[in-house]
Amino acid sequence: MSEIVKDAPPATGPAPLPVTLRQPRLPRWAPAATAAVSAAVGCGIGLAAGLDSRVQWGLIAALLFIAGSFVLAARVEGRRQAKDRLATSLVWVAFLLAVIPLVSLLWETIKRGSKVLDVGFLSHSMGGMLTDQPGGGAYHAIIGTLEQVGLATAIAAPIGMLTAIYLVEYGRGALAKAVTFFVDVMTGIPSIVAGLFVLSFWILLLDNGYSGFAGAMALAILMMPVVVRSTEEMLKLVPNELREASLALGVPKWRTIIKVVLPTAIGGITTGVMLAVARIAGETAPIVLLVFGNPIINNNPFEGEQSSLPYYVFEQWKAGEDASYDRAWAAALVLIAFVMILNLVARGIARWKAPKTGR
Q1: How far is CA 289 from CA 88, 107, 204, 332, in A?
Q2: What's the alpha-carbon Rg for the chain, to the nearest Å?
Q3: Which helix or strand (DSSP H or E) is residue 62 part of?
Q4: How far apart are CA 256 and CA 246, in angstroms?
Q5: Is there a contact between 126 and 306 (Cβ–Cβ < 8 Å)?
Q6: CA angle, 126 as apex, 125 and 129 as ends, to 5°?
Q7: Nearest Cα to 63, choosing from 28, 97, 99?
Q8: Which helix (H) or strand (E) element contains residue 87?
Q9: CA 245 to CA 135: how far, in whole Å?
Q10: Are 251 and 342 in contact (CB under 8 A)?
Q11: In 114-211, which ranges are continuous DSSP H helix?
Q12: Contact assessment for residue 276 and residue 230, using Cβ atoms and an 8 Å cutoff
């Protein structure tokens, strides 16, 4: 007879716990709490050590935040997650170190510039005004800045974009390498060198007088390499499949560039041009050499001395009077607003001209 194997009796005791892949995590409020505690401890250390600078307090708090985040994550989440927390903390600290000076500068400019910034300041010049007297305005400087930056953009933007198109679409061989080399060299040219070049050639050699156009030529020299580089990078981002599809349909290359490549990259190109405009809008050195300053209104940039907002700020700050200091801060605020408006216009144009993705 075969043996009958009976079933083993069921095991007794507690059931095994389910295996989970989730690791312990810090609560969502942990980074904020760590930052608050680090700020409090940093302020306490600064007070106890007798440190007068709030910047030193902030640096101590930042170091405590980085160290505290790493230690807490290492004890609760493990070393691998702690390294991720460390990298995140470093990014946040670097971001704050970059933003705080910008916000402080903007706040200081708004606080001081708003004292005299009104309709009268924007609609009057300094003609007949003494620097130690309140009143006057920056209308002549605003006109000069708009005309000089506009002329510089009209010169540099077409040349820069056409140069970038040549380098990306046609450039091969020694000529393209030479153009790329000189564009790289021009990118690092100090503004005073561009001003001295135009001064020696346009004013001293050709015997032309000081004018807004002379300043615009120097600004165009500074603006051109920025336009070339930004446009070149945007054109390189256009997929080659779009070019190949257009050429496969028998479309000429020049028409492919105009109808396919440029519309695809127009958003980035416009942003690059606006960045170049912002780069030259605050230049003072070539303006001091070539435009020479003028306290009255001159609407003709091709004849006679002009002023500009950067030169106006320099001129008023150099005067050393309380009234002139207020006008300098107000002009700086107008210049910041001018650059911000240009960026908003650039974003609007980029969105308007961007290729439509919907059906």
Answers
A1: 47, 31, 12, 20
A2: 31
A3: helix 54-76
A4: 6
A5: no
A6: 140
A7: 97
A8: helix 79-113
A9: 63
A10: no
A11: 119-123, 139-165, 173-187, 191-198
A12: yes
Q: Is the pLDDT of residue 20 over 70?
A: no
Q: How confident is the model at residue 157 (pLDDT cuts 50, 70, 90)?
A: very high
- Residues 6+ away with beta carbon under 8 Å from 313: 284, 328, 331, 332, 335
Distance CA 155, CA 253 (A): 25
Mapped onto helix, strand or coil, the DSSP state of residue 332 is helix
Distance CA 108, CA 94 (A): 22
Contact 65, 38 (CB under 8 A): yes
38-93: pLDDT as tens digits: 889 888 888 888 887 787 888 888 888 888 888 888 888 888 888 888 888 899 88
Distance separating alpha carbons of residues 70 and 86, to the nearest angstrom: 5
| Neighbouring-strand partners of residue 241 | none
pLDDT confidence of residue 322 = 86
- 86 in Cβ contact with 66 (< 8 Å): yes
Task: With beta carbons less than 8 A apart as the criterion, state whether 314 and 243 touch.
Answer: no
Contacts of residues 76-82 at CB distance under 8 Å and 24 or more positions apart, as own/partner, are 76/24, 76/25, 76/26, 77/23, 77/24, 77/25, 77/26, 78/23, 81/23, 81/25
Reported pTM: 0.78
Condensed to tens digits (0 to 9), the pLDDT of residues 271-296 reads 888 888 888 888 888 888 888 888 88
Query: Across-strand partners of 306?
Result: 292
Using alpha carbons, select from 278, 356, 348 the residue that is nearest to residue 310.
Answer: 278
In 3D space, the residue among 90, 102, 48 whose CA is nearest the CA of residue 65 turns out to be 90
pLDDT, the chain, mean:
85
16-25, 129-138, 290-299: least confidently modelled range: 16-25
Residue 2 pLDDT: 45
pLDDT of residue 5: 46
